[in-house]
From TrEMBL:
GO terms for molecular function: branched-chain amino acid transmembrane transporter activity. The keyword Transmembrane applies. It comes from Catenuloplanes atrovinosus. The chain crosses the membrane at residues 30-57, 99-121, 127-146, 177-196, 228-252, 264-288, 300-325. GO terms for cellular component: plasma membrane. It is found in: Cell membrane. This is Urea transport system permease protein. Keywords: Cell membrane, Membrane, Transmembrane, Transmembrane helix. Pfam families: BPD_transp_2.
Amino acid sequence: MFLVVALLLLAAPALLPAFRLELLAKWLCYAIVAVGIHLAWGRGGMLTLGQGVFFGLGGYAMGMHLKLADAGPGALPDFMVWSGVETLPALWAPFRDPVFALAMVVVLPTVTALLLGTLVFRQRVRGAYFAVLSQALAAAFVILLVGQQGLTGGTNGLTNVRYFFGLDLYDPAGKRIVYYLVLGALLAVFLAAWQLSRSRLGRLLVAVRDGEDRVRFLGYDPAVVKTLVYAVSAAMAGIAGALFVPVVGILGPADLGVVPSLEMLVAVAIGGRFSLGGAIGGAVLYHYASTGLSETFPSAWTYLQGALFIAVMLWAPRGLAGLLASGLSLLRRRRASPPAAPAPEEVPA
């Protein structure tokens, strides 16, 4: 099955029109975020409701560089001109360097997660309290972005991104290259998460999820384990955000606030938070359903989307991946069980 999916994804540029290929690349960006949520929530038990923050940090780091590159040497991005900004803000200047911008795609979300994780997990904040805190962080981040029109583009965000390191994003050939970049990044984070899950750190993470106090009594520090994995999850979200910018050409507060953060989590819940493949499949399926339902039922698609989530939570609490695993397990047991012995014949008296 994995091989079939991989072949279909590789052949997608030849099978799909440019618009559908762009949508698929966008869903794969969300799949990269889902891999990080699987690590943090599925294996670590950290209910992360604020992944949009890290998605946005990586996206804005990339978007700032691309907007400066589009504007040309010494010129200002278009939204700054419209906002009356006359000189480039000092915060933006380092992002003219592509190496610096690429480094910030990972460094900004990772450092933010390390600081937040150190402060929160040291105080043994977990469960619903951590979820609310992370969601509040996403809300505060959006308020900050919207309030700084001349620095961040305000409500509109960074729009009209035309080039990506020399690639014309309006050209179908450029879009195909960006698609393969996204696919390669998804494969890389998938392998990284797979390896981490089988490492000592991954086993400790599961132990912390199932019995944090017992792990502490054994001499390990659960806060360190959770902070490290939370930072890895944030880095993956940052990479996804950076790739989202050339794929869509726009990044604004509407892409990374409270609602988008919730959607990232719901998608993983539908696919199956305990399964790496389920998390990726859930992200793609959720956004595929959103697009399909919105095209077919433009006035009622949000209700149908909610009904899909409720149905999965009621009848498949471990997600579609858990449902599939249960079905395969039942099938294997039936095949392995010996055939029933024939009933003994009755002897006439």
